[in-house]
Design brief:
Strand order of the largest sheet: 2-3-7-6-5-8
Shape: elongated
Order of helices and strands: EHEEEEEEEHEEHEHEEEEHHEHEEHEEHE
Oligomer: single chain
Number of helices: 9
Largest sheet: 6 strands, antiparallel, barrel
Helix content: 25-40%
């Protein structure tokens, strides 16, 4: 079988003879005498497209044989035309070439190996077996883009054994037989069977997104070319929206956000004071009771319900206190506390009766009841609670 993608990554359409076609787990397994469809492997996703007018779902290689998984069968012996989905293929070429450049520069500067590589639907990730600081990574990005803009030629070929023996190149494993070498002058020399662009300028640009510690080294996520530009436009649009909402220039939105955070913090402090005042007034007006008490407050959050329960217990308004807030659509959040009763048992019992969930400690429990207010009233009154109006 001839693998045309080794001759050129830019073959978009080709003809091949159907050698075999069998029903498989993923449709029909078709093998040709030659193909330009790249099979999944080496971190690069499978090509898709059309073969003989039939959609190509996936392409895989096993023991040197490339198999195309098709939606429908083809006739053995027929010569068929294959057409590759060029947009994703070219994106993969940009990403694979960008990965070579980044991996080569990091290997040259730090001596680290690329031990994991994956082209995902959203981003490219590369794992290295050593630690890097973010500012160091930014220097790698700068160097990579300088090589990209220099538009250097990328070489991909199978050197003769004598030449290969004298060549220093990156490889994740020991290789035998014919070895395909991909070389970016000043950037990388690596054994690779993937598809790449002809010149570094076609990568467009490399942009790092994140870096995390991973298995003793780092995992870097990045974008190249078209996806990097699409990501930039998406983020630019979001920055513009935020800029408009804050009435601030795009370059000043972080300062505007900091200012807003300060204002919100002051408002929250004032709001908390208001809630404390409301709770104090509410609790001070209550008579002490031997019965368990419950109260339903509108627009109270869990924090303020807890505050209510604690104040009522402190003032000994009830031996067991239950405070709720919510509605039938979103449920009633609750906080319950007691000086005598086990709240874990009470919470479990009420959850069963009111389609609730939650739990806590002996002294206090919290959760949500998913029931109508009338149901809540009925169950609690049956349990011996007195409602505070």
């Amino acid at each position: 079988m001839k693998k045309l993608y080794y001759d050129s990554s830019y073959i978009k359409e080709f003809e091949g003879t159907v050698l075999s076609c069998e029903k498989g787990k993923k449709g029909y397994d078709v093998v040709l005498d030659q193909t330009a469809f790249y099979p999944e492997g080496g971190g690069q996703p499978t090509d898709t497209g059309v073969l003989g007018g039939v959609k190509v779902l996936e392409v895989h290689e096993k023991q040197g044989v490339v198999t195309h998984y098709l939606e429908a069968p083809l006739t053995v012996g027929d010569t068929v035309t294959g057409v590759i989905d060029w947009e994703p293929r070219f994106i993969h070429m940009q990403e694979h070439s960008g990965e070579h450049l980044v991996s080569g520069l990091i290997h040259e500067q730090f001596g680290y190996d690329n031990v994991g590589f994956h082209m995902g639907a959203e981003e490219v990730t590369i794992d290295f077996n050593g630690l890097i600081e973010w500012d160091e990574l930014m220097e790698i990005e700068k160097k990579a883009n300088e090589i990209i803009w220099d538009n250097r030629e990328i070489y991909a070929d199978f050197p003769e054994k004598e030449e290969l023996d004298d060549l220093e190149y990156r490889s994740k494993k020991e290789l035998t037989g014919d070895v395909r070498i991909v070389k970016i002058p000043g950037g990388d020399t690596c054994a690779c069977c993937g598809t790449h662009v002809k010149r570094t300028g076609e990568i467009g640009l490399v942009k790092f997104l994140t870096m995390i510690h991973y298995k003793g080294g780092v995992r870097i996520s990045l974008l190249c070319g078209k996806r990097a530009m699409a990501d930039y436009e998406k983020k630019r649009a979001e920055v513009q929206k935020i800029s408009n909402l804050l009435s601030a220039k795009p370059t000043e939105i972080s300062n505007a956000v900091e200012k807003m955070k300060g204002e919100i913090s002051k408002l929250q402090e004032k709001l908390s004071e208001c809630y404390r005042g409301m709770i104090e007034n509410r609790v001070s007006g209550l008579e002490c009771s031997e019965n368990p008490l419950y109260i339903i407050e509108k627009d109270f959050g869990a924090q303020h319900l807890r505050m209510m329960v604690n104040r009522m217990l402190d003032e000994k308004k009830g031996k067991t206190v239950l405070a709720l807030s919510g509605n039938k659509d979103n449920g009633f959040i609750y906080i319950m506390g007691s000086q005598e009763e086990d709240m874990r048992l009470l919470s479990k019992e009420l959850n069963q009766k009111l389609s609730g969930r939650g739990g806590g400690s002996v002294q206090m429990a919290q959760g949500t009841f998913f029931a109508e207010e009338e149901q809540v009233d009925a169950v609690l009154i049956e349990k011996g609670f007195t409602k505070i109006n």
